[in-house]
Amino acid sequence: MARKFDAIILGAGAAGMMCAIRAGSRGRRVLLLDHARAPGEKIRISGGGRCNFTNINTTPANYLSANPHFAKSALARYTPRDFLDLVERHGISWHEKTLGQLFCDNSAKDIIRMLLSEMQAAGVTMELQQEILSVEKTPDGYRLNISGGQTVEAPTLVIATGGKSIPKMGATGLAYRIAEQFDLGLVETRPGLVPLTLDPALLEKLAPLSGIAVPAEVRCGKTSFREALLFTHRGLSGPAILQISSYWREGDGITLKIEPDLDILAMLKAARRQNGRQAPQTALGEILPKRLAQLLAEKANTAVPLAEMPDRALEALCQEIQAWQIVPAGSEGYRTAEVTLGGIDTRELDSRTMEARRVPGLHFIGECVDVTGWLGGYNFQWAWASGHVCGEAI
Ligand code: FDA
Predict the structure, then answer these.
(1) Is this complex's ipTM strictly greater than 0.90?
(2) Domain boundary among 331, 354, 375
(3) Residue 111 is part of a domain; what is its CATH number?
(4) How far apart are the CA of 203 and the centre of ligand 1, in A?
(5) Are residues 31 and 126 in the same domain?
(6) Chain-wide mean pLDDT for the chain?
(7) 40 and 133 share a domain?
(8) Can you give the pLDDT at residue 174?
């Protein structure tokens, strides 16, 4: 005998729980299924354990999508302020770290507890460690075979199983398979917010820099981000690199402008006036980490003291520091990517309800949809907003 509900939601992550809360509080009988042992595992590990749960400056411009207009409706109907109100109602203390990024003061677990308590109040049935064995369309809606030979049915099915990032944490790509099953279009998926790797020769050259972080502007084509850049033993990371990685494609070059707010040329000229006998790396060492200063001076082939460097030579050295061209070999892939770019083609979905236009009763929300935010709380805001508007509609 099939158990019947008004709505079945697959995936007890950020989007699925938010959708369940909204639908449940509107009186819907909701079944929320997940194959993991615990709900909201990505929330738990997010933001270094403090969950960067939203960004107060969220606008649609902070998202990548083949259709940049799609996210507007949901983002306008459920705003960062709405989520913050919920956080505050639950007495969770928070702080703004930088650039509008809001974090829990204590622990990301506070957010999970808040969502669980809201789900309980909304009468949501949550079942964990449930494998989704098959999904089938029936004249009345959807029938699912799940673990233990059980069958569940509902007129509405919401897919909130996230993307492919971090398979070790339970990412499966189920949403894309269900989209394919129902003949819905997909925008090619690729890892986003991910460290970039370097070819072995360059990696060896940059090995002494591993662990160094510097302020930088990183550019790829017309897009650039000013945040920290981190050299690692695998290549390049840090917020500036994670941000640009979502815009980077295999074969593209990127340009690093180290210390973008400093006029390094003026500083080197001043150093030359004050003490022309010093080596350029010594002068650079006053403003950059010493190992980086050393490597950049070597890269510019400067083996003479500052006094012997004409303006042209100083300019060439500055080019190496503030217009440093690198062609990354690749990215670390889904193993470490924070998000999956691409996904369910938004042309298939109604932006107000997240329902598939050609498949009544089937909805997609959260990361599996072709809407991907920048680093900084934007991805959770999309999960909350798309989950909320869907929960409002079903
Ligand atoms: P999410 O991945 O959260 O949930 C999907 C759920 O579906 C999971 O519970 C999973 O177990 C379940 N599932 C998957 N396949 C299934 C299957 N076959 N059967 C049953 N269940 C299945 N964003 C942000 O805004 N601020 C931040 O601080 C961070 N930090 C961060 C750190 C790290 C390390 C990562 C990897 C990611 C972030 N993110 C982030 C991104 C953020 O975590 C992500 O955008 C949201 O979790 C997406 O929410 P969803 O609900 O769509 O998917």
Answers:
(1) yes
(2) 331
(3) 3.50.50.60
(4) 31
(5) yes
(6) 97
(7) yes
(8) 97
pTM (two decimals)? 0.97
CA of 5 to the centre of ligand 1 (A): 25
Q: Which ligand 1 atom is the nearest neighbour of the CA of 16?
A: 51
Q: What are the pLDDT digits (tens) for 262-273?
A: 999 999 999 999
Is the distance from the beta carbon of residue 35 to the nearest atom of ligand 1 less than 6 Å? Answer: yes
Yes or no: say if 365 and 373 are a contact pair by the CB < 8 Å rule.
no
Number of domains in the chain: 2
Task: Determine the distance separating the centroid of ligand 1 and the alpha carbon of 42, expressed in angstroms.
Answer: 5
Is residue 340 within 6 Å of ligand 1 at its C-beta? no
Domain hosting residue 38, numbered range? 3-191+337-393
Nearest atom in ligand 1 to the alpha carbon of residue 55 is: 25
Which pLDDT value is given to residue 169? 86
81 with 167, same domain: the answer is yes
Question: Over the stretch 91-140, which tens digit does the pLDDT of each residue have?
Answer: 999 999 988 999 999 999 999 999 999 999 999 999 999 999 999 999 99
Mean pLDDT throughout 36-48?
97
CA distances from 18 to 354, 377, 391 (A): 14, 16, 8
Q: Are residues 37 and 154 in the same domain?
A: yes
CATH classification at residue 253: 2.40.30.10
